[in-house]
Amino acid sequence: MAEPRPTDSALRAVTDDGAFRVITVRTTDVVRRMLAVRSLWGAEAVRLADLVTGTILVRETMAPMYRVQGLLRSADGASLWIGDSDPDGGARGLLTRKDATAAAAINGAALGTLEIVRTLHNGELHRGTVQVPVGSTVSQALMVYLQESEQVVSMLAVGCVLGDDHVVAAGGYIVQLLPDVDQGPLAIMAERLRDFEDIGPLLAKLDAATSPLMDEILYGMPFTRLDEAPLAWRCRCGQDRVLASLVTLPRSDLIALSADEKPIELSCDFCGTAYVVSAKELQGLLGA
Predict the structure, then answer these.
(1) Residue 15: CB atoms within 10 Å
(2) What is the spatial distance between Cα 124 and Cα 107, in angstroms, rounded to a whole number?
(3) Does the chain have fewer CB atoms within 10 Å around its N or its C terminus?
(4) What are phi and psi of 260, to 5 degrees?
(5) φ and ψ of 43, to 5 deg
């Protein structure tokens, strides 16, 4: 009997010597759905996939109980990649451009920025922003963020492999140094992970399955698997959220929108779902 196809998840483990905490993630199905709903492909799609995978890893590592967003900006402000990860395992992503016909780019002569935003339980936002060194990959940008903004030394790699017309595999890992680490295990791990800086070929070989990926990263190191949590593409949009966004508009704008007593149509930037807001609902917002 054939083994069941792996599904998206985040797997945690810790080495038995207390030196490292490791998280591996498979995001292949998340990426497939995300790229399909946005009709995105090529280098731009890979960068978005890597950011979403990386945002999941940052949330799982630094803030598992909070919503985390990763925002990768080009230096000229023309392009913005957004990764969004929720505590329930839902994830989504979006690429926006000032000029929809122009190619998005983060590398080049100018620097971009990476911002990580946590939405806390009380609704407040915790933000951290770092400069992205010229020529950096998303993996490198995330490690810069963790080092400079969170003061956490981590080794991280994310990847997305595209076939001619399909997503072959997507996922990645993060290895976090724990307080008990000493120079011996650190040197071994650093040397080991040099083989996994370009994680794409291994993801394709393993179908990005989290457990085999964990075995490869921690080969020869005794470790204990902890919990594994499912991941899935999921959009947060809904009629209530559409109305909540409209109510933040200036009153003059709401009056103008409701003046002709006709419904308005809006669509979600992340998934493209269309919503209709009736004239009665618009008028109700004026009284809110």
Answers:
(1) 20
(2) 32
(3) N
(4) -90, 5
(5) -60, -35
Query: How far, in Å, CA of 137 to CA of 157, rounded?
Result: 9
Query: Is residue 111 very low, low, confident or very high in pLDDT (cuts 50, 70, 90)?
Result: low
DSSP string, 88-128: TSEEEEEEEESSTTSPP-S-SSS-EEEEEEEE-TTS-EEEE
- Per-residue model confidence as pLDDT tens digits over 170-223: 999 999 888 766 667 777 787 888 888 889 999 999 999 999 999 999 988 899
Q: What is the pTM of this model?
A: 0.89
Q: What is the DSSP letter of 247?
A: T
Q: Across the strands, what pairs with 24?
A: 11, 173
What are the structural domains of the chain? 9-233 (3.55.30.10), 239-286 (3.90.1280.10)
Residue 264: Cβ within 10 Å count: 16
| Residue 168: HSE in the Cβ half-sphere, 13 Å Cα cutoff | 16
**Ramachandran quadrant class, 53 (left: phi over 0; alpha: psi -120 to 50; beta: rest):** alpha
- Cα-to-chain-centroid distance, residue 246: 26
Compute the distance between CA of residue 263 and CA of residue 261 in angstroms, rounded to an integer.
7
* CB 96, CB 52: distance < 8 Å: no
Query: Residue holding tokens 């003059």?
Result: 252
